[in-house]
Amino acid sequence: MTTALRSFGYWKGPLLRALLLLEDAAAKTGEPDMSGWMDKAMDELRPWIGRVRTVEDDIGMMAVRRVAATFDVDPASIERGDELPPHWFTVFFGETIRQGELGPDGHPNKGIVLPPIPMPRRMGAGRRVKIMGRLRAGEPATKKAEVADIVPKSGRSGDIFVLTMRHTIEQAGKTIAVDTFDAIYRPAVPPGQKTTATVATPARTDHAWNVTNNLSNTLNFRYGGLTWNAHRIHYDGDYTRGEEGYPAIVSNGGLSMHLMIDAALAHAEGRLAGLTARLVHPLWVGERLEVRGEAQQADGRLRIWAADKNGTLCGEMELEFAK
Q: Which tens digits make up the pLDDT trace of 56-90?
């Protein structure tokens, strides 16, 4: 088993942990570690590892105020030069991809922004963030997007690729945050079939507090506009059901994480210094997201999790706060 994967396998979620077990089983039975076609695909993909793409953003005041309005913060309360909430860097730096460069799913065509991984469906698996500062409104900043790793995996559940990206956010010569996240690429759903169902796990009910959010159509629309996200599963019901096999329009996972952090900030003391997170079950537009949390620990750590309307666990997060 690859040491790199095992070292942070927990935060990649149940799917990757299951794949690691499959890999162990394959090793014991003498089965090959990956399909031959994946070997050939890696010949093209391997040179992408280490590539860095720089995206500039002026963190303009109108954009800042639109973010504020989307999350029910008074837009007029933010002035040029003010520090923004610690997690707002995730809604800026949208890639300005030309319309003709978008693929059928709404993502940029393969090889423009991300490596040309030869599988059509992409889903988030885990995230690790270190926060050293805060963006300031109205001051230019950059995002350096690095392809940190590409790992092919093959087992009884089928073939997948795991892409790890590392985003470094900088402003005024200082590093604001380092955001490392994993995405799993999977084969297409055969026509007329549904996507493989995620096993539902009940969310814990021993929380000390909870916050409920409505994942409304308008909130998802605004969030997609802020982040310039054209992935069709977040707004095109016919495509979502017919091509990707989901039963309904999928709420944006980045939005879920943003709302989870909002809830944590309201129930913790200190400066947010980092977090680890994973999403484990999809949420549908129009449903609710209930964020539940423990009491903050003496060392500043805070554990929170999210549940859907049925009480199913949808995401988990551990945050670190510095005094």
A: 999 999 999 999 999 999 999 999 999 999 999 99
Q: Which of 86, 111, 109, 89 is nearest to 99 (CA)?
A: 109
**In whole angstroms, what is the distance from residue 107 CA to residue 91 CA?**
17
Q: Within this chain, do residues 269 and 158 fall inside the same structural domain, yes or no?
A: no
Kindly report the CATH number assigned to the domain that includes residue 309. 3.10.129.10
Which residue, of 188, 205, 228, is where some domain finishes?
Answer: 188
- pTM (two decimals): 0.85
What CA–CA distance (Å, rounded) separates 300 from 296?
Answer: 6
- Clarify whether residues 99 and 130 are in a common domain: yes
Quickly tell me which residue has 């391997």 as its tokens.
46
Domain count, the chain: 2
Domain that holds residue 162: 1-188
Domain boundary among 188, 211, 228: 188
Q: How confident is the model at residue 198 (pLDDT cuts 50, 70, 90)?
A: low
Average pLDDT over residues 204-208: 98
